[in-house]
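Please review this one.

:::
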Amino acid sequence: MTKTYAVLAAFLLTIFVLVPVTISATGRWDLYYTLTSVALLSIGAAGVWLTFYIGRINIGQGAYALMGGYVSAVLMTQAGFSFWATLPLAGIFCAAISVLIGLPILRLRGVYFAMITLVLTEVTRLTALALSITNGAKGITSIPLPGELSIFGLTLIPDFSTMDSPKPAFYLLAVTLMVLTYLVLWRIVNSRLGHLCRSLQQNEELSASIGVNTAYLRVLAYAISSFFGGLAGAVFVAISQSIYPSSFAVTDSVNFMLYCFVGGLGYVGGPILGTFLLYFGWDLLSAAKEYQLLIYSSAMIALMLVLPNGVLSLFDRKGRRK
């Protein structure tokens, strides 16, 4: 446990202190956007990891990121909501939709559930194209930057539009949400709820036979997973100040799943490491031009064959969950 806390302290020191100091010293302000994207993608991947934790393969997280983005954009541009109010609302909306969808499809397992979730992103995209409230293919643009967040007259977060560059502020927002997301995930896994969820992964019939409400646990885990996806999508929209039906595609849903595989399905921090490795790995291979995808795919296959339990398994030979 002491080692875990030491690793966590080092991680927090790195993202909140060393990264900003290094960027300021080098003048590489573009890295703020890159690292912000990695943090937000890892939040979405955290939800996919939780779905894996109950024994389901989720390839539909891009749908909830798109939903969350549109909910935030519509509320800000058409209803005058503050960005800070739309953050939880986007997550709650996605969680509610996932409950309606999950009630029938979570009974399915393996490839059957995976294939249904695979089409969710495309269904969401087509829905965004058809609805007038989403402005169809034109999308929603000119989305305002996050305003001031204050409580009882005390300013907690200043207005992003008054800053010379909001990139550092978005970075701090993204990594703070990422840390909170994974703390929640860690708490779930190490609670009674987490132990019950793990029993679903191992044997649902046995769990049901001893009185575990398996249907409730499946839906609850899927709702939390979708909440994370909606949260990430809402922040993405605030950064880009626009959203289109193509903002999140099927490939994004697949990538969310791959981040979990590469980092390690047996580790809470697996999606963070997997997101970092694949995001920067893809960029590094850009020099290969037309061979980029071939090399990337080959490396992915080799990695899964050599390290089927993810990269983090290199640091945990006993293969225990952390």
